[in-house]
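During the second year of the project, the team shifted from modelling isolated chains to modelling whole assemblies. The rationale, set out in the original proposal, was that interfaces cannot be judged from single-chain predictions alone. As a representative example for this report, we include one of the complexes processed in the last quarter. Its constituent sequences, exactly as entered into the pipeline, are reproduced here:
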Amino acid sequence: MTWLPALDRKLLREVTHLKGQIATIALVLASGITCFIALRGTYSSLEWSRETYYDRTRFAEVFARLERAPESTARRIEALPGVALVQTRVAKEVSLPIEGLDRAAYGQVISLPAHGEPATNALHLESGRLPEPGHDEEVVVLGSFARAHGFGPGHRLPVVINGTLRNLRVVGIAQSPEFVYAIRPGALADDPKRYAVLWMDRTVVASAFQLGGAFNDLSLRLQPGASEAGTLAAVDRILSPYGGLGAIGRKNQTSNRILTGELSQLGALAGMVPLVFLGVAAFLINMVLARLITLQRTEIATLKAVGYTNGEIARHYLGLVAVVMVPGALLGVAGGWWLGRIVLRLYEGIFRFPDLVFRLTPGLVMSAVLISTAAAVLGALFAVRSAAKLPPAEAMRPPTPARYRRGLAARLGLGPIAGASGMMVLREVERRPLRTALSSFGIGGAVALIILGHFGVDSLNNYLEAMFRREQRQDLAVAFARPADPRVVTQLASMPGVITAEGIRAVPIRVRHEHRMRDSVLMGLPSQATLRRLVARAGHEVPIPDDGVLVTTALGKILGLAVGDRLEIEVLEGDRRLVRPVVAGFVDESVGLQVYARTGVVSSLEGDLGAVSSALLRVDPSLRTSVEDQLRRSPRVIDVSDVAADVQRLRDMNGAAMDIWTLVSITLAACVIFGVVYNNARIALATRSRELATLRVLGLSRAEISSILIAGLAIEVVLAIPVGLFLGRGWAELFFTRAVDQETFRFQVLIESRTYLLAALVALLAAAASALWVRRSLDRLDLIGVLKTRE
Amino acid sequence: MRQALPLQEPDRQPQAARPILACHDLRKVYRMGEVDVHALDGVDFTLRAGELLVLLGVSGSGKSTLLNILGGLDVASSGQVFFEGRDLTAADEDELTQYRRHSVGFVFQFYNLIPSLTARENVALVTDIADDPLEPEEALALVGLGDRLDHFPAQLSGGEQQRVAIARAVAKRPPILLCDEPTGALDFRTGILVLELIERINRELGTATALITHNAPIAEIADRVVTLADGRVLDERIVERRARPSELRW
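Output from the structure prediction step:
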């Protein structure tokens, strides 16, 4: 120890003395770094994987679907300014009657060029090889589907292609940038067992669908700096005569849109959550150092008297920050690496990348350490500045005694109720309103974190519950391969086991008003619909008008529509009519941007006889399997889906992720609350030991003086809980409106009472644990020693 | 309003008054590093009902240790302490708390008031938990601070603070008052005022009072003086005529 300068030895001894406080602050700091590294690291790992994957596989920037266009059309598109690469394909829906599945899986078959790699959207082969040109039974299968069924190359796969059952041979298992998140169109959640993507040789697919020399799917890469909007418009113009369904940019490509949405949520969390911890750590460091410096006024004076400079003294106390930082950073980086890998593994189950690893980059560690150091130094700065500025002579004098006033509590006449010991507690709180506020805010922040970690699942469950109970009351939804004659609904209704059948018409449209435009769906619902109803977020049913269209409120706002306006609708199928119905009203829905009308209105807009694209059925539970079997055998039916099963899967998926989040948020929040209460209690004990000992001498029991000490802390916690609940709700709203794409989801942020209860309970338990920990010191209070010293 | 102290000849305490607090062969050993320090080394001592006793001794003589043990703040290494015939050495933590709560009033050198409570509230701290206390206002009037009820300690002079401490000590009407150097932090004039107050309380309320001091002239206001040195009773004498505090000089 002799090699250490005396001032550093003093620091070391103080560290030993303050070890409990230093440990808890280091823990809070570590929690902040853990969150930062885990969230930010997951974010950048996903982003890095996405960018490299998209780049390597030449993921397209423009996508278009159409009825059928001759291959020569592609050359016109290639010639458009800004277009770099064009890939035409044949892509069609298929079904896979897999043995052991209660319902056939739904799939898409996509063509691969006969020779060489696709110009865009190349596959990443996990195993096996691509199909040989002309080998009509060879197929490459999406990895998630193959894994869900546990097969690999060599396996035989039954596939119904254009009404014909074929027994294909799996030659390869692949991933694709188009299906990082693989979800059946229209489904609520991914279902790897029931959603397949198959890649086959172009000539084979084209001949199966009579699309030889033609294509029905197109993807493009653009040159740097090319205008996406311009290209989309040009592509639409070229494809319009060929039944173009409207080109979309990469941001609206399903998989990419969901991935980007998730990344933006993660990015927002990574920005918000660590701030709470770092803010609290800064506050705690400030509080502990300020106390230490007050206690050591005479020591500071002595140091100055013997010639230490202000800088040396400031550095000495900042040394304490270093002592907190080093273990905090080590623990935080290790924790972040550990938690990050867990979080990433959660994402790995949802998003499929060929090489997704948690990347703990030096830059990430550096920024975590720098940000937390900045927070810690900021916390220390004010306290240290006051030490450095203390004139030696003043420092030699005892600090001015604290000034108390009668205070609000006494003026409100609480004196007789609170009693003398109660007044001690209240005056202490009143004397340090800022510290009380900051402590409460710190604890409140932790409470809010728990709510933030849990509100998503509450809101989603609430939405699903509402949707299931009120909006979508069918047991089965039947999707037809192409719009069917309305009489099919009557036929379905007469099937044994079917209680009710209603037909729905969904038409892809592009809506315009003035200069604003969006792609949407026009839904035709029967006038007496009972299975699919429109229910506003507020809970009331919105009737569909006899004339005109009903527009989702969010879409109305985007387009600047008012009731009575004429909305321009371009139908993106058939003969691509342009119609201008009147807006009859709005419906404030939670999801998507839709336009609704009566089936009759839609058919008159479409100029057909009221074809239906899907049917909703309510079925007798005992005959459900036979109804499903019959439906699947029909060549006109492309898919039969079960909303209840979809919802359950979505809940399970969210539930698993949420369990981990809940555990993590509770652990980290408990660290913060423990840290705040423990440090406050230690400081209260240090500053008030004389008072508390006096009370013991006067005949108050240990329990009585403990209750005085604990009551002060309890006030902070009790104030913090409503602050936290309020803050949690605010953050949830903020997070939801900032990070979640409002054009897709507008759930009402709903936090269940049990989530509030959980958050409050965690706060109370963590606070009680730390208060009890400190209470042990009260038992060791030196009654005699404190009475011998002047305050 | 400050009350005038009636200046009368103090009553003589009859020697036959019953012992209220007594100790026998009291020893207290502190371990200081490698050596044992005998703070009390076989003290026999009695405090009688109603008497004013001064424990005189230089610093380190063991008088504070004795007072702490008598007051239930500390426990002896060996020997016995009896309060009204009950053995305090056998008392546990809770019993000692109850003893301090109901039977002993303390006055300290540095007052030990709670800075966040007013004079009235400092006294109420004790009256809130005592069985048959004086009203805080009454106790403060007794020490002449009836007009300073709502002042905080920081707004009072040293002497006034010590008087609040005395009011706090006597408000529970304890049978025993223990004063540890009550004038130690005060100037001469204020010290005399505080002694007058203690003497008057002893006389008017009949509270058995043990007053510790290193200041020999103060012993003259006592009925009896016990001198301690090196942890033993060196001398014990009865004062022929209790002096008035105002007669003291030091």
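Residues 1-14 of chain B have pLDDT under 50 and may be disordered. Strands of chain B lie at 19-32, 35-48, 52-56, 78-83, 86-87, 104-107, 176-180, 208-213, 224-229, 232-238.
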